[in-house]
């Protein structure tokens, strides 16, 4: 699965440029879905300046936030999103058919 960050939202607490929300898309090369996630609170001791952050870091933060919301469930949020992409790809797509009475 290919994860992409499509947008970030920041606040100035605890530091200027603290990412608090990230929009993302997940694709398997055939199907794509998108959503957003509120990230876990930033730790000022391990804060990474906005200009130094990589997409891979933000993807991991999104996955961490999604999984933190579902600690008690057997299937993680990350797995749910990836399963949705696979389901979308593997589900036969209906075709538009002319109305028989038209």
H-E string: EEEHH
Shape: elongated
Low-confidence stretches: none
How many distinct folded domains? 1
Structural class: alpha+beta
How many angstroms separate the termini? 43 Å
Largest sheet data: 3 strands, antiparallel
Strand order in the largest sheet: 1-2-3
> How helical, in percent, are the residues?
25-40%
The rounded Rg comes to 18 Å
User: What amount of the residues lies in strands?
Assistant: 25-35%
Mean pLDDT: 82
In short:
With 102 residues, the protein is α+β, with helices and mostly antiparallel strands. 27% of the residues lie in helices and 26% in strands. It has one domain (2-90).
Task: Describe the SSE topology.
Layout lengths: L1 E10 L6 E10 L4 E7 L16 H14 L8 H14 L12
Antiparallel strand pairs: 1-2, 2-3
Folded structure, characterized:
The chain is an alpha+beta fold and 102 residues long. The protein has one domain (2-90). 27% of the residues lie in helices and 26% in strands. The protein is built from two helices and three strands. The chain has helices at 55-68, 77-90; strands at residues 2-11, 18-27, 32-38. The chain has a three-stranded antiparallel β-sheet with strand order 1-2-3, covered by helices on one side. A hairpin with a 6-residue loop joins β1 (2-11) and β2. The longest helix is centred in the middle third of the chain and has 14 residues, at 55-68.
